[in-house]
Write a structure and sequence with these properties.
2 domains, about 35% strand, 6 helices, 6-stranded antiparallel β-sheet, alpha+beta, Rossmann fold, Tumour Suppressor Smad4
Length: about 290
């Protein structure tokens, strides 16, 4: 049994939970592969049992046959984990060492139970859709996908931008706004939600187009099938704009067309049987809480 581990620096009060995490994996005779940068950081804690741990440096040397990929951190760390796994079909397990932990939904106090449940097969796999950005310049090099969202926003100005949007070759709308978000179902509870977008079940087959501060009372978010192909082109007073794919960002020239479509693979997310999307909504985002209930 092989488990890969990727994480970020954590606060000192998480150290006992991480020690327990390693201890539980050792109990199940798991071979550890730790991301090199995280392994270097963990070296500052000599009490951790890491003597026989191997390491990997990225997607290229992560073995395809790895059984589990543990993401230690918050939701940003989880998104980076997805970029390391990509099409290797390795289930990602999110353990929260940060604040909100919507994707990384296993809390510190659940670690012992969670590891036992995983090795007792008390879980399900959720396939999560990614979107892919295609540009003539191959904007984000070898990883042009996002588990949460793509955004394009203005920069260096208080002026709006206009975003001409076509879907499957047909004109959809010209958005006069501060920017535009194209979110996956997984990303529907992230940036899109904060700008008025709908909550979509994570296993749905949709994308969400959400304008950022649109200067039009009739423009609202739109849900489209995820087999659609979007093409965006931008106009504005300035020649460059900011684009993001999850944790990645680039400055682009407004002459560049942006094509967005569904990626050819999905990310496999491991969910414990006692966890549900609706419970996470209530516990993390206080969704639907009402003093009358």
């Amino acid at each position: 049994m092989v488990a890969a581990i990727y994480g970020k620096e954590f606060k000192a009060d998480f150290l006992p939970a991480f020690e327990l995490f390693l201890e539980k994996l050792h109990q199940y005779n798991v071979q550890l592969l730790i991301h090199k940068s995280f392994l270097v950081y963990l070296g500052s804690y000599p009490q951790l049992k890491l003597k026989n741990a191997g390491f990997f440096t990225g997607y290229a040397d992560l073995p395809r046959g790895t059984n589990y990929f543990f993401s230690i951190g918050g939701d940003g760390t989880f998104l980076e984990s997805a970029s390391l796994v990509r099409d290797k079909d390795i289930p990602i397990v999110g353990i929260n060492s940060g604040r909100l932990g919507f994707l990384a939904d296993i809390a510190q106090e659940e670690i012992a139970y969670a590891i036992d449940a995983i090795f007792d097969k008390q879980y399900t796999f959720e396939p999560r859709t990614l979107l892919k950005l295609e540009t003539a310049a191959n904007l984000f090099d070898d990883y042009n996908c996002a588990l949460n969202e793509f955004t394009i926003v203005k920069r260096d100005s208080g002026s709006m931008i206009t975003i001409h949007t076509h879907i499957n070759g047909k004109f959809l709308n010209t958005y006069w706004a501060d920017g535009l978000i194209v979110a996956t179902p997984t990303g529907s509870t992230a940036y899109s939600l904060s700008t008025g977008g709908p909550i979509v079940l994570p296993t749905a087959r949709n994308f969400i187009i959400t304008p950022i501060a649109p200067h039009n009372l009739t423009v609202r978010p739109m849900v489209i099938p995820d087999d659609s192909e979007l093409v965006l082109s931008v106009e504005g007073r300035f020649s460059s704009y900011l684009t993001t794919l999850d944790f990645q960002y680039k400055i682009i020239e407004k002459t560049m067309d942006l094509k967005i479509k569904r990626a050819q693979y999905t990310i496999k997310v491991l969910k414990l049987n006692n966890h549900s999307f609706f419970t996470t909504l209530r516990n993390k985002l206080k969704w639907g809480l009402d003093s009358r209930n």
